[in-house]
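A quick aside before the break. I want you to see a complete sequence-to-structure record at least once, exactly as it would be stored in a machine-readable document. Don't worry about memorizing anything.
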Amino acid sequence: MHFPSIFAKVFAENVCGTVQYVAGFFEISAMKKNLVVLTGAGISAESGVSTFRDAGGLWEGHNIMEVASPEGFARNPALVLDFYNQRRRQLKEVNPNEAHYALAALEKWFQVSIITQNVDDLHERSGSTNIIHLHGELRKARSVDDDAYIVDWFEDLNLGDVDPNGHQLRPHIVWFGEMVPMMEVAASVASKADLFVVIGTSMQVYPAAGLIYEVPAGIPVFYIDPNPDNWNSSVGTVIAEKAVRGMQILTEKLQQFL
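That is the input. The structure line, written in tokens, reads:
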């Protein structure tokens, strides 16, 4: 069995909602190459999660600064909480797609680190085990008074939901104008990559877009996006496809690095 057929088999198995790896088809080296993957909204779009960049500057009818900035939260906390409550409810209605599962399957052959700009949990639910969330996590909340107080949160978050000291909880999301606390960790991971892949992001949102400059010179770089206009085609291999089809192509190309 060769690599693409294993990829297809993983897809078939995940129709039943499980990830099962097939052992014995490869001699797996004890020293797996570091495959670092930066993902954006495009990988979750095929699961039905709406993306901001395709919404004409609005996010489902809202000006993004109303619902994704500290100032917006200060002006109308109830609106912001409701907005993220809707996003959190949506997660119950969507599932990982084949691109998510393909990344999880690659852990059999590579040391995979996923740096994601997405706040959903689709990478986790597909079985990936090493994930850095740059922009926070929708299914977590934190105190407005203490950034270190972070709790899992799966249902609606409302005014009156507070930390042990009585301070309001807010979505654990990095809003516009806020620091990206995981950026230093992500940069360190990127700097150790043997292979670097970008999936479903326009590479226009900083500081995440700057991670490409942390990647060691000369290593193989792949960019998967159906609209790669903003990508410098001289930097790596462009796969001008959506995430699912792009991962099929990438998986075939990765055979040469085993």
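Two observations worth writing down. The two ends are 15 Å apart (CA to CA). Confidence is low (pLDDT under 50) at residues 15-29. We'll return to this after the break.
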